[in-house]
Amino acid sequence: MAKEKRIGILTSGGDAPGMNAAIRAVVRTAVYRGYKVIGIRRGYDGLLAADITDMDARSVAEIVHRGGTILLTARCAEMMTPEGQDKAAQICKVLGLAALIVVGGDGSFKGGLELSRRGVNIIGIPGTIDLDMAYTEYTIGFDTAVNTGMDAVNKIRDTSSSHERCSVIEVMGRGCGAIALWCGLVTGAEEIIIPEKGAVESDYIIEQIIKNRAKGKTHNLVIVAEGSGGTPALARKIEQVTGIESRATILGHLQRGGSPTALDRFRASMMGHMAVNLVGAGEYNKAIAYRGGGLAAMDLEEALSVPRVYDDSIYQMMKILAI
Ligand code: F6P
Questions:
Q1: Which of 12, 45, 82, 96 has the least C-beta neighbours within 10 A?
Q2: Can you give the pTM of this predicted structure?
Q3: What is the CATH number of domain 6-141+260-305?
Q4: Pocket residues for ligand 1 (CB within 6 Å)?
Q5: What's the whole-number average pLDDT of the chain?
Q6: How many CB atoms lie within 10 A of CB 243?
Q7: Which residues are CB-contacts of 226 (< 8 A; sequence separation ≥ 6)?
Q8: Does residue 130 carry a catalytic annotation?
Q9: 275 alpha carbon to ligand 1 midpoint, in Å?
Q10: Out of 3.40.50.460, 3.90.1140.10, 1.10.579.10, 2.60.120.1440, which CATH number does the structure's domain 144-257 have?
């Protein structure tokens, strides 16, 4: 009798809402195809410790709506070393994995690429709230993070407008301004500060706020991307120079949690399903992308080499819509 195909799956790096929907789709598609699924706990940390769990259709029940990842996750320093990569590849071989599905961001994909160079078949599913993977127009968790950020800014806006204050709100995103741009546009922010545009002079922001007051705006929302930072200092300076009461809020990890939106569940399900179909077709070392309105599989190494190009059009539109 032919040995059944064994597929490994792990989630790695920062968790993102929708990862569970991807895990569910991988497991159920694999079960449907007659494959065995090995869940690896705590990302590459767990792979290096061979911390595994057998998964079946029932083990992914009741998770499609849950944030986080049932497989747990970690940022693994050992996986960045050649010794760690050799050891992880060896463990994949001992486990008899026909393929390893990696759900995570750039760093997780880089680990996957190193494994593929050591003979492990990899499929990457983009999972990060940051939307900072240039080869794809969508990453799992971004939509939920933006909706959570929007919700939080809406609430801050109520109190900001009642007190006629300036609210400076920092959102996550590491070195990428995508969450800030989206949150800023959909909440009607007056200003968005993102790392892609370089250092922003506080004098420029203050000048804008003074002009806004003169135009009759009674309060201001300034959205700052984590990668730009300086949020509390900026709020203090705005208050000192303009006399307008200002408050800083750093949203932090609340943006990483929560029940995934319909979009994140839908696309994560499609990506998980496609990942197993790629394994079935023997198409390995691919990164699943969302591009031009549909899914595509791109060579993993090529995907990692796509440079991030900043498009200023959302910022420019925000400035027009905030007049
Ligand atoms: O990559 C996702 C992310 O939430 C970033 O937006 C943020 O910079 C980082 O992870 C925070 O990492 P940690 O949870 O390890 O503090």
A1: 82
A2: 0.97
A3: 3.40.50.450
A4: 14, 105, 128-130, 172-174, 226, 256
A5: 97
A6: 9
A7: 170, 171, 172, 173, 174
A8: yes
A9: 25
A10: 3.40.50.460
